[in-house]
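Can you give me the bound-state structure? Components:
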Amino acid sequence: VRVDRDLLRRLAGLRFGARGLATGKRTGDRRSRAKGQGIEFADFREYGIGDDLKLVDWNIYERLGTVLVRLFHEDKNLRIRILLDASRSMESKLDQAGTLAAGLALVGLAHRDSVELGSAPWRAPVAGNDLQALPSVLAWLEPIESGDPEPVRRSLLAQAAGMRSDRTVLVSDLLWDDETLDGVLQALAASSEAPVVIQTLGDAERRPDLEGPVTWVDAEDGAEIAWDGTTEDAARYEALFRSWLDEIARRCRARRVTWIPVFTSDAIDRVFVDALARAGVLGSASA
Amino acid sequence: MTGGLAALLLLVPIALAYRRLPPRARRVVPSLVLLRRLEPGAVSARRARRIEDALLLALLSGALVALVVGLAATKDDRPAIVVLDGSPSMGAVAGDRTRIDRARSALTSWLDAHPDAPAGLLLTSEGALAISPTLDHSRVREAILTAPTRADRDWTALARESCRDARIVVASDGPHAAPASCDVTNVDLGSAEDNGGLVAVAVRPTDALGGIEVAVETLGTTGPLTASSEGVAFATLPIEKNELVTRITAPRGSFALSLPGGDALAADDRVQVARTPLVRVLLVTRDPGGFAARALDAHPGAALQIVAPTDPLPSDADVVFVEDAPDASLPEARISVWLGEVEGSGFAVKEVARDPIARGAASDWMRYVDPSAIHIASSIVFAPGPKVLLDSSRGPLAVARDSDGRATIALGFGPRTSDLGLDVAFLHFVANVVDAARPGTGAVEGVLSRDDTVAAAPPPTLQRARPVLWRWGAGAAFACLLAEGLFTHLARRRR
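Here's the bound-state model for the whole set.
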């Protein structure tokens, strides 16, 4: 993976969208279910031995004679998991996918979110909580190469179904059979408050060369198809491609998974600023 | 053979072309997920295509090999006996030449086409091979060119002898019964019109009294057809539109069907209709002019001998009818029939019945006989036990038994004691008995049995040529090419 480091600098102004409550362990700037030290009042409760007297609401005590302490919402960081599909079909899209993963990791780390990246089974996941972890994230990302699809998919499925996270982002071309796709989407939906799928697609999928006769060879499993069609089949393919994307969008919607299609021809910074922001995955840090 | 090998060399470029075609580039794509949807069922397409290619190559190769083998097989160097028909009809002019000139020309051409085949010569007018098989075709050719025109002999027997080690090549204009066991090639002597005459003859009996149906197909002649026996014509039959189907009554013995002598090919247009032998019938009766005697005498298949009961009896006969019991013992006949007189027949008598009403029992002896129509004034009733031919309320009126391949039939009544004689039933009964006694095969004089059919062989030009190997080869090649085209078409449609 070759990560566009210049791009990362331009992403500093972004942050993950404020969707749902944070469940991170560390103090952050996201509202969480936890109550404790904070600035936003949440509730009262009766005073207990050991409670900080500074939290006692003396006004209520004066009026009602009851000793109550004030509770505040505790701000936590987000728990973000980023999964990168490194199967062989991703080979031509791996740079873009890696840059997307690095950018998302940067956005998370910049806001002290807990970020974990996972990929193929031969790459142990890497995690970090602040920008100090960015070099190790990049060092983890850059050596990744595409490999056998089956282990990668099994690994992605296992990680998607792993510990619950606030955001899980899968970067993949989704060139899977329906059963695998449904399994991964189901795992994402079950393990994350706001699952996101960024589907990276290249020209090979969007506008393949249909001039035959040719033998198409599947880069993943070596399967072959003899093709005698011509470029006249392009319209048929385009309709098929559109319906395939529609079908994936429908499946994602059905599981409340945010689906964002990205093409290798798209400018990567616009993907962050426009596509991801429009989908609510990222927002402006100043907002 | 050289040509065949050269043709086989064609397989090399075809095989190479198939190995090279189609020139498919391999294009690696990230995944076939989408392309499989575009081309449903194409997962195994490439494997199927490989099989198709191999199959098509095999079919084309098969076609070529079949063709080459077939063409190569046209050269046949087996020894041959060349048969030249020198009968008088061969002297007739057909077209611009005589038929024998055509035959000579055809046979010499055949010899030229088979220079490596030892050839012998058989002239139909000779009793032996004119020339034994030899590679010196010049001798054979010379003998063919100088062969005289003479009356035919029966050359087929000699040909049959010769064809054990050789095939027969016949140049003849007339219908000839080619030996069935031989590999016979008929050389073409011209068009069918030139080769007129009898094409096919079929005869069959229409009744037991000598009635015969004759069916004749002719070509190039208007007839009439003459039926003759022992040189004496007994029927002249007009032929219209090359066909004749008619019924005639033929006398005993074999007879001939022939076209008139004026016809150019008449010498060969003659068919001898063989008939099976007569049945020797012995009638023992006091009344040689009675109905039984006259009915038996009328049967064309029976050679009748009438003897009185007191006369000495012949030692041998096929059928014995007993109207009056003889003093001497009966000869050993295949069938003995007792007509109203049963003493000595061996059947037990129960009683004599007046005006019994007969009813039938299934039996070949009583084929076409309707017992209910017979009025019987008086009949012997037999004791139960033997096979019943005619039954009545009083008991069996006719019985039969078989012993050592000999049949004994006893009727409790005869023509004298019933109106059997006035009824055609008795003639049917007599015909049934004579039919049953008829020897199977072997003779040429007699009657035409129900199963006999005599057919003349069609003229050579109308005979179906024996399918030669190269035709099979060409057929197989055509079939292979057809299958190849069909496969290609289907494969294209499937894609």
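A couple of observations. Chain A touches chain B at residues 88-93, 173, 175-177, 202, 204-205, 208-209, 213-220, 223-229, 233, 236-237, 240-241, 244 (CB under 8 Å). Chain A has a mean pLDDT of 85.
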